[in-house]
tRNA threonylcarbamoyladenosine biosynthesis protein TsaE
Amino acid sequence: MDEQTSPQDVTPELAVAAPEEAADLARALDLDETTVSTWLTRGIGITARRGAATAGLAHLVDDGGHAEVADLVLAVPDDDIAAALVQGAEQIATDLESRILVVSCMQSAPSPAYQRDGDDWVRVLPTRLVVSTAEAMHSLGATLATELHAGDIVLASGDLGAGKTTLAQGIGLGLGVEGPVISPTFVLARRHAGVDGRPGLVHVDAYRLGSAAELVDLDLDETMDRAVTLIEWGAGIAEDLGGSHLDIDIRRSGDPADETRVVYLEGFGPRWQDVDLSPLSELLLGATPDETGDNN
């Protein structure tokens, strides 16, 4: 470690603890070994380490659709470690397809996503979908379009080639907009008119934009009330464009030949507060798009 870097500046490393680690974790965190062993065998233990030192342990219990961080222990008080452990629990619970995460062992909210429920903090987790092909990504877009209304803002994130434009093409098909939906990389924004009173689609590529001010300069507000606004690469600059938005995070596997994508959908703001997107997985199985695109 650089002599100018304090231990608190090192990003904690998270891992799922194996049952045989119970004794070491108990010693490091001054806990009863039997208690730790029970946590690791009847639930999921998430450890946080800074360097070689154990900094904390979270005990996650998943009950099929409902998960809970029942215990969280830190070697020393550290808000960053606590937040990292809760984020790790969120990721694991989401991948287990739980809809709700309860944190019952913290006095303050782990993040703004949580609401108080009695003595607990509760949040709705992102919806996780496994999309196996470009055709399935296109179908997801067409299926998602049935949930979208004029005025909705959708932020699509993912590496180059993850499938953002393919998703946008499916949304355009589902909305029934005019014109082919192609990447707006060089023109920044393409506007597709709606048909028969249905919402249009404004398709934005924010890859080359450096700030929210540059996004505002595209005059998206002129069409926002009568169209779905889909912004690729919008994370970090477009969240405040409207009062609500839907985040779509597309993650690819490490194998370039593998078309499988894992898609996380999470709504923010009052528009999405009571919207359950989990049925999309079942609807997706029955969707048959009229045309497909490549994963772009």
Q: What stands out?
A: Residues 79-95 form the longest helix (17 residues).
